[in-house]
Amino acid sequence: MRVTELNLYPVKSLRGIPLDQATLGVRGLAYDRNWMVVDQVGRFVTQRQMPGMARVTVRLEDDWLVLEHPEAQPLAIELARRDQPRLTAYVWDDACQALDEGEEASRWLTAVLGDLRGSALRLVRFDDAHRRPVEPRYLQGEEAHTAFSDGYPFLIASRSSLDALNRELQQKGLVPLPMNRFRPNVVVEGAPAFAEDGWSEVLAQDGHYRFGLRKPCQRCKITTIDQASGTIEVPGEPLQTLIQMKTQPLRPGAYFGQNATLLTGEGGIIAVGDTLHEE
């Protein structure tokens, strides 16, 4: 097997950045889900509520996080800044310590995305001193924590699995979907479709990093949103087809990809083209 794609999502639910290589950390790829959009009470906001978030592009420069939208001037956030007011931000049931990126960012997001139930939007940064643990019941002896991801620091997906899904969609007369519908961090090829659901670990061939695959990823409405236009083209798809495929026969719902932790290799580099094997 080999790595064919790496994707970074600095701001949760905004557009991702394709990479040729990335630095590995316990919390994920460097800067992954390090920022998040919240409402006025600190509750996380995603494409589930605001599909148009997919239209906000993200760039990382040497000293800046830059957000861009077709209808606004770019917004630049200084990477090194750490003197922002602190607040509590909520991801599902987790309360996380965060840094508020300020009024300019709030006005920019609210202008390009609109408010949410009358609430202005805010941009927050994960507090590096905070630890948000991964749910322990799925771990296998390791300790793991994450930033603003839904629950795990890495999402690994297989090209063969996407090909199998697209064949089913085409049999229904539907258009094949790109991998970005599933917003994975690491995409691999060279294994049978959905073989990843039986893996415990994935290792670099030279051994310099190792992932633990810990929980199948249950998919949500975001997979129905075109990641270029921020619109829903076929309501309910690909969720309905994944349910029919029973990729997780003992679990109700639609599943695609594996949530993962980093077992070894913190600070190392993962790159497109890396050879992998599974255990």
Shape: globular
Average pLDDT over all residues: 97
Number of strands: 20
Structural class by SSE content: mainly beta
- H-E string: EEEEEEEEEEHEEEEHEEEHEEE
Q: Over the alpha carbons, how many angstroms does the gyration radius reach?
A: 18 Å
Task: Please describe the biggest sheet, giving its number of strands, its sense, and whether it closes into a barrel.
Answer: 8 strands, mixed
Give the number of helices: 3
Residues in helix, %: 10-25%
Unreliably modeled segments:
none
* Strand line-up in the sheet with most strands: 2-1-15-14-18-17-16-20
User: What's the end-to-end separation, in Å?
Assistant: 12 Å
**Percent range for β-strand residues:** 35-45%
Please provide a written account of the structure.
It is a single chain. The mean pLDDT is 97. The protein has helices at 103-113, 159-171, 239-245, and strands spanning 2-8, 17-19, 21-25, 28-29, 35-38, 57-60, 64-69, 72-78, 86-91, 94-100, 122-126, 132-133, 145-146, 154-158, 186-189, 201-204, 210-218, 255-264, 269-271, 276-278. The longest helix has 13 residues, at 159-171. It contains 3 helices and 20 strands. The strands form 5 sheets. It has an 8-stranded mixed beta sheet with strand order 2-1-15-14-18-17-16-20. The protein has a 4-stranded antiparallel beta sheet with strand order 5-11-10-9. A 3-stranded antiparallel beta sheet has the order 4-3-19, with no helix packed on it. The chain is mainly β. Helices cover 11% and strands 35% of the residues. The chain starts with a strand and ends with a strand.
